[in-house]
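Module 6 notes. Inverse folding takes a fixed backbone as the condition and produces residue identities as the prediction. Think of it as a translation problem where the source language is geometry and the target language is the twenty amino acids. Below is one complete input and output pair. Work through it position by position during the lab.
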């Protein structure tokens, strides 16, 4: 990648509401912008037990983790259970908004987006990741100037526990997000469907789609059989792999049920990852009805993940249609699988269907009804039952698609081009000013 000239170098500060360690998209974007000659800092939050500001250098950029004081965590709890704070919302929100930068932080904390706004050096281009980071970027713009870019990884209010919020709380948050997003000069998001939805929702004309693809990967000449070694399975045992977060509605239970169906007697399901369902998965794996064919493995580091994924026979992503966000998803694990030449079985949703079935070189796997274990089993068998020659062709096609289209080298170029087009000096003319309500 060609480095930017000094005249075009920007001071980019990314705001995220996590410790960054597992946020592959944020880390990839930061490295790409740093490689292009920009000065990049990621502002995040550490583990709740950490009380000191920490700094670290990584891949040409800096990560600064700022702990959130106890009072802000209390407001976060109250947001998660809004009936505990209904009577306080308007008074406290307006009160804190009128008290300057510190008040901004306390105000946005109760709606789940508190993060530090002040930064040590001049911010030319604040970059908000998701709604949990956007208000910090807007606040930084108000204090230091520059322009805001909003990187929305998902439809925030259609994801996770937000779906179950009371209607009034969701209305308040959607309105808040729209107002904050209108400070941005551009929206960056993860696929075409979300780009169309969010661009229309926020009224932003400039939308840049940057898929969550990994870098190109070359399989080694002697591929290690890592999954079978770790599970003590004989060579050649068919493995259907789920890797990533063990979370509700990701289809992990449905995959386990699928291997009990006729024609799947030889198939083992391997779950490689971490998350809230790990204990439940281990209990499931111990049930006699599975006959030891369900295996749960701890997550491995990103640097060695491709070799582990490549040692499976099929990657399974039976994400459930429980939220709009799921139905519009293009999960990281899909791209991580085809990057290694691993054929995939995915939910028959628009974005995943486009990637898997509409590839110009031919299908990269199969689609399924994610709520139906029989449909999942049938899709898996359609791959495992291929002749050795046809299966080798399919794996080669997946790897070729990853090298030609679905790779970070290709996707990051769009992000770098966006930043090259943005002003290098503070530019606030024409930008809406942040609201400054009077205190009570």
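Target side of the pair, the amino acids:
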């Amino acid at each position: 990648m060609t480095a930017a000239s000094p005249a075009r170098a920007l001071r980019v500060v990314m705001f995220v509401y996590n410790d960054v360690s597992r946020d592959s998209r944020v880390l990839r974007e930061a490295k790409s912008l740093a490689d292009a000659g920009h000065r990049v800092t990621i502002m995040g939050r550490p583990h709740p037990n950490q009380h000191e500001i920490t700094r670290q250098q990584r891949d040409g950029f800096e990560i600064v983790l700022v702990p959130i004081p106890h009072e802000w965590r209390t407001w976060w709890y109250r947001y998660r259970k809004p009936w505990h704070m209904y009577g306080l919302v308007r008074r406290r929100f307006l009160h804190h908004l009128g008290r300057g930068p510190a008040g901004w932080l306390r105000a946005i904390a109760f709606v789940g987006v508190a993060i530090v706004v002040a930064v040590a050096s001049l911010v030319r281009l604040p970059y908000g990741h998701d709604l949990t980071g956007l208000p910090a970027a807007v606040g930084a713009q108000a204090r230091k100037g520059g322009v805001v870019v909003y990187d929305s990884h998902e439809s925030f209010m259609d994801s996770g526990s937000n779906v179950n919020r009371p209607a009034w709380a969701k209305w308040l948050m959607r309105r808040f997000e729209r107002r904050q997003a209108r400070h941005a000069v551009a929206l960056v998001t993860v696929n075409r469907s979300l780009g169309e939805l969010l661009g229309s929702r926020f009224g932003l004309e400039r939308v840049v789609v940057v898929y969550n693809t990994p870098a190109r990967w070359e399989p080694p000449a002697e591929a290690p059989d890592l999954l079978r070694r770790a599970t003590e399975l004989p060579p050649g045992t068919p493995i259907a792999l789920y890797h990533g977060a063990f979370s509700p509605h990701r289809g992990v239970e449905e995959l386990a049920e699928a291997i009990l169906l006729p024609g799947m007697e030889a198939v083992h399901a391997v779950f490689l990852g971490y998350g809230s369902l790990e204990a439940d998965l281990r209990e499931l794996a111990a049930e006699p009805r599975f006959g030891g064919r369900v295996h749960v493995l701890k997550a491995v580091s990103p640097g060695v993940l491709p070799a582990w994924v490549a040692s499976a026979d099929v990657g399974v992503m039976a994400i459930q249609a429980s939220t709009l966000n799921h139905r519009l998803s293009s999960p990281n694990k899909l791209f991580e699988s085809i990057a290694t030449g691993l054929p995939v079985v995915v939910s028959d949703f628009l974005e995943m269907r486009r990637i898997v079935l509409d590839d110009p070189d031919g299908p990269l796997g199969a689609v399924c009804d994610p709520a139906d274990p029989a449909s999942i089993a049938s899709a898996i068998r359609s791959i495992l039952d291929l002749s050795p020659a046809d299966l080798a062709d399919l794996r080669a096609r997946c790897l070729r698609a990853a090298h030609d289209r679905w790779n970070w080298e290709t996707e990051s170029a769009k992000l770098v081009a966006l930043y090259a087009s943005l002003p290098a000096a503070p530019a606030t003319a024409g930008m809406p000013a942040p609201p400054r309500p009077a205190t009570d």
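Reference fact for the lab report: Residues 388-404 form the longest helix (17 residues).
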